[in-house]
Amino acid sequence: MKAARCEGEDGVGVIRAEQLVEADGFLFGFPSRFGMMPAQFLAFFDSGSELFASQALAGKPAGVFWSTGFHGGGQENSALTAVTQLAHLGMLFVPLGYTFGSGMFEMNEVKGGSSYGAGTYAGDGSRSPTELELKQAFFQGKYVAEIAKKLKQPNVSNIGQ
User: Where in this chain does the record put each NADPH-dependent FMN reductase-like domain (predicted)?
Assistant: First the structure.
C-alpha cells in the first residue's frame, strides 16, 4: 500500500475517486450521521466529478454498509442517501434484500442492517459487531462480488453499448 501511495496515517488504505474505474464492483461503508452518510463520503464522490461527466462507473454494481449509534440512528435513511450518489454515477445499486435468509429475521439479539445492506450498532463506539452482523457483512460482500463477476462476463458487459 505504501508503495502505491494509498495508505493513510493509521495504516488503513485510502483511495482516490478516479481509482474507482479500476474496480468491477463496490461496497461502500460509512458511519451514519443523523440519518445521512457523513460529509466525508459526499466529499469523496464530489472529488470525482469527471466520473459523473464521463459515466465511467456506469453499470458497475455497488452496495453499502454502515454503522450507527443506536436503533434510531437512521440506518435505512443513510443507505438511501448513498443511493443518490450511486445513481448519478450510473452505478447499479445492489441491495442485500432478504438474501441473507433467516439471519434477516433474527429477533433474539440486537442486530444492525436491513434489506439495504449490512450494518451494526456502534453505541458510543465501544460496541463491536456481533457474530451475526459479521456474517451478514461477509455474505453481502460475497453477494456483490458474485454479481460483479456475472456483469463482467462478455455476454453481459456490452449492455447499452
Answer: 18-97
Question: Is 126 within the bounds of a domain?
Answer: yes
- For the cut 90, the answer to whether the pLDDT of residue 28 exceeds it is yes
For range 27-31, the mean pLDDT: 93
Coil, helix or strand for 111? coil
Give me the DSSP letters along 12-70.
-B---GGGGGG-S-EEEEEE-BTTB--HHHHHHHHTTHHHHHHTTTTT-EEEEEEEESS
Residue 137 forms part of a structural domain = yes
Q: Could you tell me if residue 8 is inside a domain? A: no
CA–CA distances in Å: residue 150 to residues 59, 143, 157: 12, 11, 9
20 — pLDDT class (breaks 50, 70, 90)? very high
Indicate the pTM of the whole model.
0.84
DSSP 72: T
| Residue 27 falls inside a structural domain | yes
Q: Considering its fold, how many domains does the chain have in total?
A: 1
